Write the structure tokens for this entry.
Amino acid sequence: MMTVKEISKITGITIRTLHYYDQIGLFKPTDKSEAGYRLYDDNALKQLQQILFFREFDIPLKEIKSVMENPALDSNYILQMQRNMLIAKKERIERLINRIDDILKGEDKMDFEVFNKKEIEELFSIMVRNCMPDELRETAAQEFGGMEQWKEHYIETVSGENVQKCYLKMVEWFGGKEKYVSSVKNPVSKEIAESYLKRIDVILKKLFDRRDFEINSFEVKEVVGEYGFVTKQLYQLKDETGMMLSLAQSYRNDDVMSIDEKYGEGASEFFAQAIENFYK
């Protein structure tokens, strides 16, 4: 058994902080000595380590306590969750370091080009060949006065800064440019896509049925987690966080009325809040 002082020395956490964690029920001692001093075993030390991992992301203590007390989440699941969070943080820091290095080298071009002209032409060919029914392809070509004119319009539009910024997000979600292009080249079949969309519809109905629960409750988070998992599978994403937060924004800003008509009054705002709470 270890005392508070020994735990403080091992972890760098102050004794006052450890006492506070005990008071709020976040990290309680394993036992107490006859004199009433707090004592901790090795399992308690592992638990404190998980708490400190979460604190790296400035997650409120109340939410950490909720996760740690959740009977549906074992220690390995929590560690895997923390590992994914740390990898995402590491990748973000590496991007920021590379950005600073570019500025120090005098290469701060502020151009948001993700795909060059040759790559955009390839994306156009993939879209026309794999992603569009014959009727829609013919209609689009007629609207622009021919395939070449349509292609030129596409290249000009996609080369713009706003669209390139969108592609920057997509590439990040898919875990790299090659993986994004691969997903475009090899989309899931129509039947599989429809199956996934039906499953998402069922998930959203289940989520709306839980609108009376606290937004931070396990009941709500469980369904949002399922929604994120299915989205990740459907779009073959490395990390679904960005896309889910974009979906939350669309629920709030795009076709609010149609969402509310389909699932119930207030559904769009509830979906947006539930997703944002889960992923932020």
